[in-house]
Amino acid sequence: MRYSPTQTLAQLIGRCARMGQKYGVEWWILVAGAIIILGVICTAVFADSIAPYSPYDQNTGPQLAPPSKDHLMGTDNLQRDVFSRIIFGARTILGVAILSAIISSIVGITLGLISGYSGGGFDKTLSLIMDSIYSFPGLILAIAFAAMLEPGIISITFAVAVIYIPTYFRLVRGQTLTIKEELYVEAARAIGAPGITILGKYIFPNIIATIAVVFTMNVADAIMIEAALTYLGLGLPPSVVDWGMDLAMGKKFLPSGQWWLITFPGAMISLLAVGFTMLGEGLSEILNPRLLER
User: Which pLDDT tens digit goes with each residue over 151-178?
Assistant: First the structure.
């Protein structure tokens, strides 16, 4: 039996409505965040088809032209189309934020599992190192790492990733210490199951839900950190199209009335960060066992 697009859409809407009735406002917060994120991702993926100009084209129209039908978000001091730069800039900020979150989660989760399960001197030493890193303000630490590295996408990704490793480590280690004392883990250990099997089969699956929530919040924060580093001139070279870079270049024109140069990049940074925050908040409430009992 074939389904038409209308039937598929109707089924999707009906399913969303049922989920909304089950979980309440938390579900709609999650959906709103997901829509924002998917919208920006689609913009980044299809940037070549959506953007009317190349983000590097310095002959798109008048210099510092305000928003109009020809240039929806105006032009900058180099006659580049701001709307096109916003479209292509989504690729940079999404790539850095998501990749840094993936790197930090892989490293932090792995170390947290091993440290929490093994215990002893290794656990104490690693916990001390992570607590030392965690004690520094995130932005200050990212600035320190970025200042030591050459400007570039790989460098800024590494600088942002490092500051979130302790977050995953502390979370995973704490839950591992609790779960490893459960009876089913003791039983697996008693029958001779190797440590890697216990970690992968009995402990890790029980912390995935919490990790998913932290990951979305991590990406939201990484977006702000990446934009801040680039704004300060420590993240990316001027040749890379990025919302933070456009903010930094446009700030000097604000006193003379060119508001669009910082308004649109700033609004997109805030919107994307809010989207991931809403997704994380929705997941946090929906995956809360106490909420599911209601």
Answer: 888 889 998 999 999 999 999 998 998 8
Tokens 């446009």 sit at which residue?
250
Give dist(CA 54, CA 116) in Å, integer: 50
Q: Which residues contact 68 (CB under 8 A, 6 or more apart)?
A: 74
Give residue limits of the domains in the chain. Answer: 22-292
pTM, entire model: 0.86
Identify which of 76, 74, 58 has the alpha carbon closest to the alpha carbon of residue 66.
Answer: 74
Residue 240 backbone zone (phi > 0: left; psi -120 to 50: alpha; other: beta): beta
Res 106 pLDDT > 60: yes
Q: At what angle do helices 208-231 and 82-118 cross, to 10 degrees?
A: 130
Q: Which CATH number fits domain 22-292: 1.20.120.520, 1.20.140.150, 3.40.190.10, 1.10.3720.10?
A: 1.10.3720.10
Q: Which of 222, 223, 233, 212 is nearest to 270 (CA)?
A: 223
User: 5 vs 2, 9, 84, 131, 194, CA distance in Å?
Assistant: 10, 6, 31, 52, 50
Whether pLDDT at 14 is above 90: no
CA distance 206 to 193: 18
The two three-digit tokens of residue 140, written as one number: 């200050």
Rounded to whole angstroms, the Cα distance separating 35 from 207 reads: 26
Q: Per the structure block, which two tokens stand in for 66?
A: 């305000």
